User: Which sequence fits this backbone?
């Protein structure tokens, strides 16, 4: 997408520098640092410490992490150890496991001398597939926005509420929840986006607002708890979020606070959509609430906050008493019955096992064989 008039992906292989490069998202929107990842430790830190985040981008980063390690040490032990170390960085996002399984299954049968080149080829392919997948999500989601725009007064925008950042910064490009918004903007359909701040890491304020501003899309930043109020007063036409893992029954796991948005949307009769690539579906889990592991992150994310001071300095300041205990669950699960529909690269479906299987019929056979 566009930053300062230039097109970027969130991760890419720089042939000239012979390394993978990422945008270090910790410093957005106040700085735009591009970082080189040259060894396994750097990839582990990038995922674990959220230089990159978002399920699809985490998976793509892990794939490049394996490829980079295959240049350094293509042995069986190195491959297994690298996959294990990367898998341990973030427990909730299913794309991480999916990408590592893809790389491991591809590379294990190969000789050591073949592994590096083929690993980079597959990692690049995973990135390109993600871009196309998210583009298609946007095409299908665009039709939902178009339908809402038909009933609006001429020139009035479709008002969309987002949560967290499911934009191009959470993927390789386009984003999931934002892709329909970007497509609508390109089609000259007026849209207005309510961007909630998304505590505790403020990905909405830091990242989604940054993206939309760069693309010239009309938006307003709101506090997390303003969403229900706006819905009550008919200021929201639809909600679109992303997901880090979707259970086979249609339950969706996403950034903490998503469940509350879904409850408010249901109470006010507002459609609540979740945009996801199929790589985010965990077909092995039938109940997201009980079976999806929820990452508990560091207390410092809640007790302190990053921002720009009046003198322009970027600093972390404490907002709670020194001795206050903190709980920091990073995700929650929205049950399928609160989800109006799932927007995938194959179309929009009901949030249910049957709805997903209608779009992914090949899983019927796979599921029966697993049973």
Assistant:
């Amino acid at each position: 997408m566009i930053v300062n008039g230039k097109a970027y992906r969130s991760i890419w292989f720089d042939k000239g520098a012979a390394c993978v490069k990422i945008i270090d998202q910790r410093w957005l929107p106040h700085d735009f640092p591009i970082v080189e990842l040259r060894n396994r430790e750097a990839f582990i830190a990038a995922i674990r410490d959220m230089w990159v985040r978002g399920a699809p981008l985490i998976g793509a980063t892990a794939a490049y992490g394996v490829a980079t390690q295959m240049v350094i040490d293509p042995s069986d032990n190195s491959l297994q150890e690298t996959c294990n170390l990367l898998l341990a960085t973030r427990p909730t996002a299913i794309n991480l496991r999916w990408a590592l399984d893809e790389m491991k299954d591809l590379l294990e049968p190969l000789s050591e001398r073949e592994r590096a080149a083929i690993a980079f080829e597959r990692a690049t392919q995973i990135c390109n597939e993600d871009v196309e997948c998210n583009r298609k999500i946007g095409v299908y989601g665009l039709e939902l926005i178009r339908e809402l725009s038909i009933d609006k007064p001429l020139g009035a925008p479709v008002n969309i509420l987002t949560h967290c950042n499911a934009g191009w910064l959470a993927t390789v490009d386009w984003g999931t929840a934002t892709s329909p918004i970007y497509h609508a903007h390109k089609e000259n359909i007026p849209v207005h986006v309510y961007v909630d701040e998304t505590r505790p890491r403020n990905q909405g304020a830091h990242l989604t607002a940054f993206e939309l501003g760069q693309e010239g899309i009309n938006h307003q930043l709101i506090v997390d708890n303003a969403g229900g109020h706006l819905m009550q007063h008919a200021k929201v036409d639809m909600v679109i979020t992303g997901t880090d893992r979707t259970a086979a029954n249609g339950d969706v796991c996403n950034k903490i606070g998503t469940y509350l948005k879904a409850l408010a949307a249901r109470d006010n009769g507002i459609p609540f959509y979740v945009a996801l690539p199929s790589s985010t579906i965990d077909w092995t889990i039938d109940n997201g609430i009980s079976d999806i592991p929820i990452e508990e992150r560091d207390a410092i994310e809640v007790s302190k906050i990053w921002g720009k001071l009046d003198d322009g300095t970027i600093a972390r300041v404490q907002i709670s008493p020194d001795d206050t205990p903190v709980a920091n669950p990073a995700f929650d699960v929205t049950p399928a019955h609160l989800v109006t529909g799932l927007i995938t690269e194959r179309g929009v479906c009901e949030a249910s096992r049957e709805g997903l299987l209608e779009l992914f019929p090949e899983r019927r056979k796979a599921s029966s064989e697993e049973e």
User: Anything to note?
Assistant: The chain has a mean pLDDT of 96.
